Fold:
Amino acid sequence: MGSCPVKSARGTKTCVSLKNTVLGASTMAPWYAPSLRSRLAPLLLFLQMGFIFIYGFCTEVESNVSVDGITFRNFYPNFQDVNVIVFLGFGFLSTFLVRYGFSGCGFNVLVSVMATQLAIILNGIESWYYRGKISINLRSLVVAEMCTVSALISIGAVLGKTNPVHLVFIALLEVSGFVLNKWFLQTLLKVQPLNSIMQLHIFGAFFGLMLTWMLYRKGSELPFEKEKSDHKSGLFSMLGTVFLWMFWPSFNSVLVGDAPSGRKLGVVCSTYLALAVSAVTAAAVSVLSSPKGKLNLNHMQSCILAGGVAIGVSMSVVHQPWEAMSIGFIAAIVSTIGYRYLKIHMLLAFQCHDTCAMLSTHGLPGLLGWLAHLVLQLKDCDDHTMGIRFAVVHICTLFITITLSLSMGIITGCLLKLNFWRPPQDKKCFDDQAFWEFPHLAVQK
Amino acid sequence: MGSCPVKSARGTKTCVSLKNTVLGASTMAPWYAPSLRSRLAPLLLFLQMGFIFIYGFCTEVESNVSVDGITFRNFYPNFQDVNVIVFLGFGFLSTFLVRYGFSGCGFNVLVSVMATQLAIILNGIESWYYRGKISINLRSLVVAEMCTVSALISIGAVLGKTNPVHLVFIALLEVSGFVLNKWFLQTLLKVQPLNSIMQLHIFGAFFGLMLTWMLYRKGSELPFEKEKSDHKSGLFSMLGTVFLWMFWPSFNSVLVGDAPSGRKLGVVCSTYLALAVSAVTAAAVSVLSSPKGKLNLNHMQSCILAGGVAIGVSMSVVHQPWEAMSIGFIAAIVSTIGYRYLKIHMLLAFQCHDTCAMLSTHGLPGLLGWLAHLVLQLKDCDDHTMGIRFAVVHICTLFITITLSLSMGIITGCLLKLNFWRPPQDKKCFDDQAFWEFPHLAVQK
Amino acid sequence: MGSCPVKSARGTKTCVSLKNTVLGASTMAPWYAPSLRSRLAPLLLFLQMGFIFIYGFCTEVESNVSVDGITFRNFYPNFQDVNVIVFLGFGFLSTFLVRYGFSGCGFNVLVSVMATQLAIILNGIESWYYRGKISINLRSLVVAEMCTVSALISIGAVLGKTNPVHLVFIALLEVSGFVLNKWFLQTLLKVQPLNSIMQLHIFGAFFGLMLTWMLYRKGSELPFEKEKSDHKSGLFSMLGTVFLWMFWPSFNSVLVGDAPSGRKLGVVCSTYLALAVSAVTAAAVSVLSSPKGKLNLNHMQSCILAGGVAIGVSMSVVHQPWEAMSIGFIAAIVSTIGYRYLKIHMLLAFQCHDTCAMLSTHGLPGLLGWLAHLVLQLKDCDDHTMGIRFAVVHICTLFITITLSLSMGIITGCLLKLNFWRPPQDKKCFDDQAFWEFPHLAVQK
Structure:
């Protein structure tokens, strides 16, 4: 695909020999990406057979749903919306790299199903301990997919610089860490299950940040040769964004019970309004911060989601439309400015090469949501003692989440630095050709 | 992206200077698209903060839904279908221009959320006047998005020849006009709310037509340099079409109550059948009217929707499958022939450069649906007096709608002709580069 | 699109004459694809008017749904999921050919609506015979679309080598054959309606196989000039795959009644798990069977669906998660190995040029599901006599299905071999330009 600049002039053969000559010393390094045959295939088959084995002994499909027969039908569209978020939304969002589309979308499916299978087991350990069986139903699938989303956020930070073996390990370790964190929060701090799940944005973003810091490659200050997008890959990515943006109200509301009547409607409307405001604000800030007064497609792809993220973390205390809209407004400003200025700063000053700017897209809006939760809860509190108690618990929640995500990120990073996993060379970063066959590929004219 | 033919040979600087020399007199005109920094960003921020302010004082999320708890869950999938229509359907339908994909899709999100926020307020003015609060629920969001659709139809007619500041103004004025029209019809003529909303196709198409006539640029008789599509942008556009086509039954039926039992099923089946017939007929007419006997992708993208539009306008009187199918059949013929012959005639004879042929896609099928409504209602009427009364009201409905849409279109057009809004030059029409940054864009080889 | 190398230098006319000279003897053959004006347009119009006529006399929208009012709302999202499978899933799955995207997606819509309209009538013949009317409701639409899916599977085998007239005939004859098969199975062998519908994978695959054998073109051993994909068309196709993969649980469960409580949930979970396992296993086998240890996008597009197909055929007896996962595991292995080795073997040894490898994607997993059904049912059977009786019926089911699909395939193939239908020349296979106008197409730079 034309990685050699003199191709057209001299033909392919000359070009390769020329390269070998020019490269001199580096010809000793393998020219082609290392084969993953002996790594990826056994790993996947082994893990998959292990999962089948565990599922055979420990799981059952919930059968006593005579009462919930109607619930299944009501819940099923919501479940599919979460599926859309995971497989279409995140999958196509990561196709923006011009030569990394197959990997962005294909590995997303692969990694998601591995992580979801693991998350179902981990989430069910308690139930298995007490009842001997993990019951599978739509709700447990949805919770598992939400844990998967936290892994997908982490993966966004190292997109293009890892091979699928890495990605599977990242996903499995991240999901384990996230479930552990969820359990800590629920057991130690008595945090509501829903609130603990919604830490996924913060956990995923900081885990990914640590990971990309550990896996830093020298020379990343300049963009990689293939780290760029074109018109069409931008549109594919926009497609993923629109799916995420549209179904984010479903994602936030899916686990909300309707016990205090209308609660679910409240979450849907809040998320919808926050997303609407985010879209407008992200566009405005993007134009404002551009010297030529132009929009940036990356901002439109990532930062319009900031409102949804922030509401997700704070939704249990957002009651008024204007609160949701203000949160969306501030989240979009923070996220867009973070994307414009913080991303490059993180790279140059801290050696964190965050491919999809997950810190700005999920980390900062998540923190903002956490703050909004604190402020709004304190505002509603009449009793000072209650307020202080809540504040302490809330700060501990954040502290535990960030500590655990950073430390898990470092552990995972150490593990992945081994050359045993055959990381792609710098030249093969952001390139599908390292992982995919192109037998009948048309020569682009 | 190769707008300069000698770029590769001499480098960018030489190229620019060369251009300046070659262009001679026209060098006085600004070469780059005018910056929107001082126009778009303040406008968006000001409007958005205004909306937050208004929402803070006037709106509340509906809370007394104890009875409708089950309704929320039933309505939510329908609500998301309408979202799909607005954000995915219209968004990707307008990516067919080869260099205008980012704008087509990105501005659609931007404009839709602005228009929806305004429409929620305007639709709720009456409730605000009497109750002091505008309540937000899924139904009010859906109605607001339907008003937005009428704005999106208008925008289709001026696609590519305007900047986002124009588009925001068009959307806000169009939605205001449409809500006014809806209020006129409901108050003066006692038209059913649903029927008045469904005038959106006619209102949007004629508003857009007037707009494109006002904004006519000299030299539009020949296609603009970048007014063309390629294989991949055609497929993106087809994706939007398929979404529209598939979820059109949801769009038509979402506000239909199920009071006369089975009414909703009737609308869904009618729309489904009409769309199916439209798809076949549009293909047939497209082949028949082509000298070489080939299909035209534009026809497949627009005209297969004609049946859904026509049924939408006439659905309250369509009861038999064959009626729906016949309406779909005729609508597709009218729409395809309109696209093939009328579009160019409107351009040459009336100076209406209707980019997406909205007159043929929404205007004519809408008028046909209006006619079908009249005919079928009269057929069902036993009483002559009733029939004549209905006919008079029905004709007044159309008359008011068209008058208001034309006059609002002219007013909007006058406003937008000001150079203050910095319209893109002719050379920058249909070009993303006027509005979007391309920092890491891959050079297409 | 640059099919003529000297176009830009000399203009189109010179170019054509040059070609004519160079081609010498072959100038006698028509250079342009034959016009379909006199074939396709009358056929479509005639059939469509016929359908309207039949629908006018024989159908009615179900009106006595006072009890099922709530069912409509519950069923509608499921119905839309099946729509997504048919129009988005299969439509975009077949856009993987680099120059055949418009046809892959556009003809899919055309053919699906024709086949669905016919299937509604054919499925309702019995009801028409006894009650005088065919009632149309969401369930009958879903059953009709499932019959359509069997036609789409067949069409996948001949994709790119046929014109739309062929495709319409194939779809109509295949659907007729499939409905006949369904009737045979239900009447003669008392097979459950749902089980007989799920034979669609086997019926469609073998029908398509026979068809592509009948329509074999000499020289197909080597890939056709345009039978290849590129980065972007691969992504479009991946989009279709993800839609299919995500909504396959809806497809399998849509017609399952919830009478034994939780049955529907069981089918959804089984399909979901089988698909998850399939995705992992297909990737592993793809890497394992590749000499360079790389993934193949075609395998990721087709073989990850194998688990869903196999569960679809066997779902009435799959109760445990591990059973579903094991079936998904084996189905993916069979399907991927079939794609890698069997496809080329079928071409070279049996002259079956199966464009989308439908035998491996739907045929083999379907047979595996049939086998799993047999084994699991026998395992559950306590009574030997019952077991043997079931086995006989089950084997007869398969025998009838395959016999009928092969014979219908041969009959259809004979009919389509007539030159009257103007098949595209070898040079115009896999090429949109034979069927679509490209008026404003941008020259790709």
DSSP finds 17 helices and two strands in chain C. The longest strand of chain C covers residues 59-61. The CA atoms of residues 217 and 364 of chain C lie 25 Å apart. The domain at 36-62+71-436 of chain C is CATH 1.10.3430.10 (Ammonium transporter fold).
